[in-house]
């Protein structure tokens, strides 16, 4: 069990230190921001749609290691998904962080199962996911530079 815990911690630390898809997406046509005033985390998620699917996704913001690692991981999980697929992925992620139940198949999302032991961190872990789903529900907008 200790080896698995170490692996999970390594996944979170890696995503925090080397975030994937970090930065404003200049050609984004949808975006949404989430804030967690309790701890100061904030995150804006940018989407470039390819029809009904997420063509490109990125984030920017600041916060604790859990929120930033989760945002990074979220971008890798949601690229190519539709709104309903993204909502399903978010539901699975939320179940993992609130119950500690790991998915049947190991994947990086399982690294966040330990968050359930720290209820105050659940909002940190789900912040970017909420913003992504909110962005998907927005109508397309003119890209901002």
Notes on the structure:
The protein is of the alpha+beta class and 145 residues long. The chain has one domain: Sufe protein. Chain: A, CATH 3.90.1010.10. It is 45% helix and 19% strand. The protein is built from 4 helices and 3 strands; from the N terminus they run αβββααα. The chain has helices at residues 2-17, 65-78, 83-99, 119-136; strands at residues 30-36, 41-50, 53-62. A 3-stranded antiparallel beta sheet has the order 1-2-3. β2 and β3 form a beta hairpin. α1 packs across α2 (65-78), α2 (65-78) runs parallel beside α4 and α3 (83-99) runs antiparallel to α4 (119-136). The longest helix is centred in the C-terminal third of the chain and has 18 residues, at 119-136. The chain is globular, with a radius of gyration of 15 Å.
Number of domains: 1
Low-confidence runs: none
Mean pLDDT: 92
CATH topology group: Sufe protein. Chain: A
Order of helices and strands: HEEEHHH
- Please estimate the helix content: 40-55%
Shape: globular
């Amino acid at each position: 069990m200790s080896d698995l815990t170490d692996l999970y911690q390594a996944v979170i630390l890696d995503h925090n230190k080397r975030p994937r898809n970090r930065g404003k997406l200049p050609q984004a046509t949808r975006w949404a921001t989430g804030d967690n005033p309790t701890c100061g985390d904030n995150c804006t998620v940018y989407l470039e749609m390819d029809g009904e699917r997420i063509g490109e996704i990125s984030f920017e913001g600041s916060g604790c290691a859990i929120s930033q690692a989760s945002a990074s991981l979220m971008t890798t999980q949601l690229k190519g998904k539709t709104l309903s697929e993204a909502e399903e992925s978010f539901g699975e992620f939320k179940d993992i962080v609130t119950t500690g139940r790991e998915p049947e198949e190991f994947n990086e999302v399982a690294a966040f199962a330990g968050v359930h032991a720290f209820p105050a961190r659940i909002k940190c872990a789900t912040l970017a996911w909420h913003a992504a789903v909110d962005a998907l529900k927005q109508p397309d907008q003119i890209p901002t530079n």
